[in-house]
Specification:
Layout lengths: L5 H17 L1 H5 L4 H9 L1 H4 L7 H29 L6 H15 L2 H33 L23 H10 L6 H13 L2 H5 L4 H11 L6 H14 L2 H22 L2 E3 L10 H19 L9 H15 L11 E3 L2 H8 L4 H6 L3 H13 L2 H12 L10 H20 L2 H4 L15 H11 L3 H15 L2 H7 L3 H15 L9 H14 L2 H8 L10 H13 L10 H15 L2 H7 L4 H17 L10 H23 L5 H9 L3 H13 L13 H8 L2 H10 L1 H15 L19 H13 L3 H8 L19 H9 L4 H5 L4 H15 L3 H11 L1 H11 L14 H14 L39 H12 L2 H14 L13 H6 L14 H5 L4 H17 L1 H10 L3 H10 L8 H14 L3 H12 L1 H9 L3 H7 L11 H20 L7
Antiparallel strand pairs: 1-2
Helix pairs in contact: 1-7, 5-6, 8-9, 9-12, 12-13, 12-14, 13-14, 13-15, 14-16, 15-18, 16-20, 19-20, 19-22, 20-23, 22-23, 22-25, 23-26, 25-28, 26-29, 28-29, 29-30, 29-32, 31-32, 32-34, 33-50, 34-36, 35-36, 36-39, 37-38, 39-43, 40-42, 42-45, 44-45, 47-53, 50-51, 50-52, 50-54, 50-57, 51-55, 54-57
Length: about 1100
């Protein structure tokens, strides 16, 4: 084996030193050298940590590397000779034979020789280092021969007397010869810093030490003493050294007046005068970084002195030179070479204790802040190196940017702005300082740093509101976009536009930022900023920007900006005239056709380039498809997505990302729940969801958590019995299924003409894959075969009955379920089977399932508002009658569940007097509900049925254009419900946020209410008031009434959102306490604010903008 290399020898030396430190106590306690050797020889027996020492691990690995092959060869030879593995006594013989063979091998002798020689060299090296250290310390080692502590522990220790320090102070005087001062400095560096700093002559010493800093031959020794003192002394002492050093550096810069070239000429930092100052600033910067770890334990005045001396040092003292080729070298220029990202300042601003003092001093000494702003405005550097003047300016720019960015994120820091900077007219707001240079002169890397700072500002709401959401900032960011639209050449690189788009997207993602985008005052030319971005995006999609060579790279970022605008109702209102959905769909089709082509080999083109081009095309295709999908966030956006012809592909893309659990976007905090709910509200959307595999995946996932659970996982304790009707593990799947089936359109598409299986046998491994399968297995449980096929019959059937209860709240859905599956007969028969005896006189046994069935039967058998029908409770109560509600096994319902007949008769008598007016209301209802299409089997005129039972029918029908009726999406959804969401965000933002968090949408619930005219949710009198209000005041009042109802339910909505029961609450519970008359003032206020938009759009349904 060859000798160990130098690196291994150094490693061995450090490991040996580490071992000696670890056992220093055992060695020092040994009475003699022989005993210490004995301790080392038996260390494995006495030290339990022996095998954890790094030296032992190193030696073990070294032996394995050296002798491993010898041992393996011996094992093979022995095995071949014996023919079997050694066991018992043969095993011991094998070990002995291998040991002797290994010790006799040449590899073993070479290993021992190499290890011995290297270990000897390492030990001799350690002995030499120790002797040098002892000899250097002996020059200043003084022995107290008359110690006052006359005890058995009388020992000598190193110290220096006051008289000797006085002598050293005199020897360091500037008038003394240089050799005398050098020797005095050497002795001072070897003395304990605590003795030096506490001596009576410290003031003279400090003055002489600062004077020695200016001399090249002595400055290194002084810095050595200062570094030793700063690292081992408390803050009340080190602050004097730090402030003295800072003042010395400051005076050196003032007296020397160093210059450096501002262009690309080289700045030689190895020049003696610069190198000396650089070392001193390095020591200051090291202390600045570490000071925050201990200065909180000391009075604030000490910390303030350190900060004040720092800011005084960094404040500029020279005006910019008249010569454009040279600039004055300031302390900050050398500091930025050592700490370009201002780590010291970031640490100072981290804690409130020090940040308060920093901001207070900056307010008093703002020159360094002005210098930082001046650097950001005037810098034109690029990051190429360290030593040219241009790189020095760039480092200064980065340092200043980091400093300003840390100040501006705090409220009290923003009070320091605006500041006045050189060569710039007027005061400069902080963000304008950054964005102006980014868009006009700075190159790629400075632009990226500026944008990083703007991203940080955009993540803080208050900071972004004060700094970013300003008209001037928006104009500056959009300047290059407008220049390209006007055919002007850019002064900044094209890549900067990508960064600008990223910042614009972050601004548009917030409510305040979106308002700035949509405001007509946000830009002075041709409308709002949203219009500018939309026009530029359309030009990029059409590749109609001649000054851009590769416009495709900018398409994605600027489409993402538009996406943040049109995924809100108010943003879509502004952008819908541009036809972005059609332009994006056309671009997607072009890109998709390109990705499907087989690339033709081109001579001179590498495979790697072709592969990168194909990946870029696929990425662009995905970006465009994802942007189209985001139209589905709003009701009108779903219509535009359907009109684009790509709704099926978009839903497939959404399902693909949904299964991979990918985030919607970097700006979106929630998942795809809102999109799924919006798409499921329409017939084309539900069909697309079914084709994508979403419905099947949802059914399989539901069955796995409901029936399979985690029984295949080994459990320490039994699974607890669920206390809630729907276990928490199943709640997510339950809510997803409710969102999917919330609309009667989705129920019709998924269940129409779909019979139940009703097989005579079900296997335990058979998993439902569709909604009819779930109804067959969980709701219509009418045979023993179905019961025995469920592992958790009671829990699963309860789940199905709860789902049925929610579905039956929508009367259209109930009609379809009852007409196809006769579910009421199934439930009544189950109640009969649950009797305690065959006799019809005996009652039905009360259990969880009978209670659930009773609730569903009453819900579907009685109609009316909160005071017109009584729904039985689902829970038991204490007392003799735990369930006071009567159960039944045949219709009609017991009289206790409905209003008394005299009350109903009185209500009908009151309405017959106004029969002509109510008949007119019926005629208008078809118009007011914006259902301008021939009634199909998927919708039933509930108000018409209820009001004109004894009057003549309404023959009037209103039709929408053929193109709109063929799309399969009701105007009640994309017009009325769209404006409900728009007004809700403006008027009741908390409710709007609650819906978004829950994954449910206000449009779904409003469609539910409006299609059955609030029947089963409001009392009959309030239903009449609602209809008459819409007839007399205008059809737009149905939007305002929905907003008023949601405002009335605000507290309940927030509460049930927290408990994840919002969908169930809104569908099953009536609207209690709502009176249309009490909200007339609120409705009139909404009319005055929004009628010009809402009503005009309703009137334009015949000719919608596509």
């Amino acid at each position: 084996m060859s000798e160990v290399c130098v690196e291994d020898e150094l490693d061995l030396q450090s490991l040996l030193k580490q071992l000696l430190r670890s056992i220093s106590d055992q060695i020092s306690s040994a009475p003699s050298t022989e005993h210490a050797e004995d301790v080392l020889l038996h260390l494995e027996e006495t030290d339990k940590n022996f095998h954890n020492y790094e030296l032992v691990k190193y030696l073990r690995g070294y032996v394995e590397r050296s002798l491993g092959s010898v041992v393996d060869e011996g094992m093979k030879t022995w095995t071949r000779g014996e023919g079997q593995h050694a066991v018992g006594s043969g095993h011991d013989a094998l070990i002995q034979a291998l040991t002797h063979r290994t010790r006799d091998s040449a590899e073993y002798h070479q290993m021992m020789q190499t290890l011995k020689s290297n270990t000897t060299a390492v030990v001799e090296s350690l002995i030499g280092v120790s002797e040098e250290e002892l000899s250097s310390q002996s020059n200043v080692q003084y022995v107290d021969e008359c110690s006052d502590s006359d005890s058995s522990f009388n020992q000598s220790y190193g110290f220096i007397r006051q008289e000797q320090l006085q002598v050293l102070a005199e020897q360091l005087d500037v008038r003394k010869p240089k050799e005398v001062r050098r020797e005095a400095l050497q002795a001072l560096c070897s003395a304990p810093p605590s003795d030096v700093l506490s001596c009576e002559s410290w003031s003279d010493l400090r003055r002489n030490l600062c004077a020695a800093l200016t001399e090249p031959d002595l400055s290194d020794r002084v810095l050595l003493f200062f570094a030793k003192s700063l690292s081992s002394s408390p803050l009340n002492v080190t602050r004097e050294i730090y402030t003295s050093l800072a003042k010395s550096v400051e005076s050196a810069f003032v007296s020397n007046k160093l210059m450096f070239p501002s262009g690309s000429a080289v700045v030689d930092v190895s020049r003696p005068e610069i190198s000396r100052l650089l070392k001193q600033i390095r020591l200051l910067n090291d202390f600045q970084r570490e000071a925050t770890t201990f200065w909180i334990r000391h009075p604030e005045k000490y910390m303030e002195e350190v900060m004040e001396s720092t800011f005084s040092l960094l404040s500029p003292r020279h005006e910019p030179g008249s010569c454009p080729t040279e600039r004055t070298l300031e302390p900050v220029h050398l500091l930025v070479l050592l700490d370009v990202r201002a780590t010291w300042f970031i640490r100072w601003m981290h804690g409130c204790y020090s940040r308060t003092v920093v901001l207070r001093l900056l307010q008093r000494k703002y020159k360094c802040l002005g210098s930082a702003g001046n650097s950001v405005l005037l810098s034109e550097s690029e990051q190429r190196g360290v030593y040219s003047g241009r790189e020095l300016e760039y480092a200064h720019f980065v340092h200043s940017l980091s400093l300003l960015g840390k100040v501006i994120v705090y409220k009290h820091g923003r009070k320091l702005f605006p500041v006045r900077v050189k060569k710039h007219k007027g005061n400069t707001p902080p963000t304008h300082t950054y964005t102006e240079k980014n868009t006009l002169q700075l190159s790629w890397w400075p632009s990226y740093l500026v944008m990083q700072l703007l991203w940080t500002l955009s993540e803080r709401d208050q900071c972004a509101a004060e700094c970013l959401y300003q008209r001037k900032v928006m104009e500056t960011l959009l300047y290059p976009v407008i220049a390209l639209l006007n055919g002007q050449q850019l002064n900044s690189p094209v890549e900067t536009l990508t960064l600008i788009a990223d910042v614009l997207a972050r601004i548009a993602n917030t409510d305040r930022g979106l308002s700035l985008f949509l405001s007509e005052q946000s830009h002075s030319e041709r409308g709002s900023a949203a219009h500018v971005v939309a026009r530029f995006t359309l030009r990029l999609l059409d590749e109609d920007v001649p000054l851009l060579i590769d416009s495709q790279t900018l398409c994605g970022p600027f489409i993402f900006v538009c996406r943040q605008i049109y995924n809100s109702c108010e943003g879509l209102q502004v952008l819908r005239g541009y036809g972005l959905h059609q332009a994006i769909a056309a671009a997607w089709r072009r890109t998709s056709s390109m990705s499907e082509r087989v690339p033709t080999p081109v001579p001179g083109t590498s495979e790697e380039a072709s592969s990168m081009m194909m990946q870029s095309t696929l990425l662009m295709e995905e970006t465009l498809l994802d942007s189209l999908l985001n139209f589905a966030v709003t009701p009108r956006g779903v219509l535009l997505l359907q009109q684009s012809g790509a709704i099926t592909e978009c839903v497939q893309h959404m399902f693909s990302r949904f299964t991979k659990k990918l985030q919607v976007s970097r700006c979106e905090k929630f998942g795809y729940g809102v999109m799924v709910t919006q798409v499921a509200a329409t017939a084309p959307g539900v069909v697309a969801l079914q084709r994508s595999g979403y419905v099947r995946a949802l059914a399989v996932e539901l069955w796995s958590v409901l029936e399979c659970g985690s029984d295949d996982v080994r459990m320490v304790r039994p699974k607890p019995t669920p206390m809630e009707p729907i276990d928490r593990s199943c709640l997510k799947s339950f809510l997803s299924l409710v969102n999917l089936l919330s609309s009667s359109q989705s129920v019709w598409e998924l269940l129409s003409q779909q019979p139940l299986a009703n097989r005579s046998e079900y296997t335990l491994r058979e998993v439902p894959t569709s909604v009819p399968d779930l109804i067959d297995r969980l709701i219509s449980v009418d045979s023993q075969h179905k019961i025995h096929s469920l592992f958790h019959y009671e829990q699963s059937h309860t789940f199905g009955l709860r789902l049925l209860s929610v579905l039956c709240c929508h009367l259209d859905s109930f009609l379809l379920l009852e007409s196809q599956y006769d579910l009421c007969s199934v439930l009544l028969q189950s109640q009969r089977d649950n009797r305690t005896s065959p006799s019809p006189i005996r009652g039905i046994m009360v259990d969880a399932l009978s209670v659930e069935r009773n609730h569903v039967l009453v819900r579907v058998g009685a109609l009316g508002g909160p005071s017109e029908r009584r729904l039985p409770s689902r829970s038991l109560q204490e007392g003799e009658r735990p369930y006071p509600w009567p159960m039944f096994s045949s219709f009609p319902l017991p009289s206790c569940y409905t209003v008394d007949p005299p009350e109903i008769h009185q209500t009908l008598q009151g309405t017959t007097k106004k029969r002509p007016k109510l008949t007119l209301a019926c005629v208008c209802t078809l118009f007011l509900s914006v259902q301008r299409q021939t009634l199909s089997s998927s919708s039933f005129p509930w108000l018409l049925c209820g009001v004109v039972r004894e009057t003549f029918p309404c023959p009037s029908q209103v039709h929408v254009p053929a193109g709109m009726s063929e799309c399969g999406i009701s105007p009640l959804y994309w017009c009325t419900a769209h404006y409900v969401e728009l007004l809700l965000k403006q008027e009741v933002p908390l409710v709007h946020s609650a819906f978004k968090m829950s994954g449910f949408t206000p449009s779904q619930m409003c469609i539910h209410w409006l299609t059955q005219c609030f029947w089963n949710y409001l009392d009959w009198a309030e239903v009449v008031h609602y209809v008459l209000t819409c007839v007399l005041m205008g059809p737009d009042y149905q939007v305002y009434v929905c907003v008023a109802v949601l405002k009335h339910l605000q507290s309940d909505i927030l509460q049930h959102t927290h408990s994840q029961q919002l969908q169930v609450f809104l569908k099953e519970e009536p609207i209690r306490g709502f009176k249309v008359g009490e909200y007339l003032d609120f409705l009139k206020g909404l009319e005055s604010s929004y009628r010009s938009i809402v009503l005009s759009d309703m009137k334009s349904i015949r000719n919608p903008v596509e």
